[in-house]
Amino acid sequence: MLILAGLGNPGAKYAFNRHNFGAMAVDAIASRWNFGPERKRFSSLAREGEIPLAAGGGAKALILKPQTFYNDSGLAVRDAMGFYKLAPADVVAFYDEIDLAPGRFRMKTGGGAAGNNGIRSITAHIGPDFRRARLGSGHPGHKDKVMGHVLSDFHKVELGWVKQLLQACADAAPFLAAGEDERYQAEVMRLAPAEKLDPKGGGRDI
């Protein structure tokens, strides 16, 4: 069993916020691979399903959208992981990353939270060694503007690359399910290419 946790805030008010990018991504995966109906479990909205593997068969997965609010995401992840008796390596957290340029995508395992309170919460409850799927949402340019930025909706002019990246995350999911994170990252960026720009505008991607 693989837990795909999409970070975000609960309710229609936040549904299209940049901070709900992770929740949008796991929704796209669930739709692409025909997961079961959504139901309330582990203080979350959850869907069960199977992602096919290139070698044959499939990997069982649980889509998890914590309803605890973004900063307490770790509570839901901990409960689901404990119920299925899984290890941190069986958890993939999808979340918005302001330190990646819009449309960029990176996979990593372990490391710090880099100021992301949702990731900090998961680390506090299960340790740092879970997998992270980071969806670039760009930086507003100044730390005082970050809160307003992440709690704002994507602009209409951004919806093209947003939808392309979400679809790429879903279409490439067999690599993720097989544990091939580098191939997953490469395939997502092949399907949804984005320029390597500094998230604060111009320059190098970080």
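Above is the first protein from milestone M3; the second protein from the same milestone is given next.
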Amino acid sequence: MRASAAIPPAVAKTMAALNLLPTAVPGLIILEPRVFGDERGFFLESYNERAMAEAGIRERFVQDNHSCSQRNVLRGLHYQTQHVQGKLVRVVEGEILDVAVDLRRSSPTFGKWEAVRLSGENKRMLWIPAGFAHGFRVVSDKAHVLYKATDFYAPEFERTLAWNDPDLKIDWQLDGEPIISAKDRRGVFLREAETFD
């Protein structure tokens, strides 16, 4: 068996590099990984601790989640008041409209939201730091969504912000009636919600 050659440091750094795209909400970062493709398919690093640290994301991830949903399923907007989670979200198949709402009262963008299209095709990821509510709507026939979390799921501290809060006016780019769980239908408006300092 032949030993594989070591990757030169300069090449390794290039492979791990991420393109960062700005958002209007401080802390939210759209990440584009470098994709290496040929006639066989493609390769990308979906997570590299060094590259994330260079992008300013130094949190430790403790849990990976995977959901599969059909077209027009709308999940969220979820957050935890304790064991607060930062999330690194990506889609491996299909497309979603991913939404994050700033719940940090000290933030100049408190109550503002950002919507980003994530898909298996564009391979973008969204970093949502602690202090945000998160949700998404499935745009394609179905979507497989993966996300890493910085703390464990704690159902006793989970809260749901109303997806249709009239003060937030989130444009979910709806295509028909959304499919929403009973739990998410009980979400509260921002003016009544528990928030962060």
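Note on the second protein: The longest strand covers residues 63-70.
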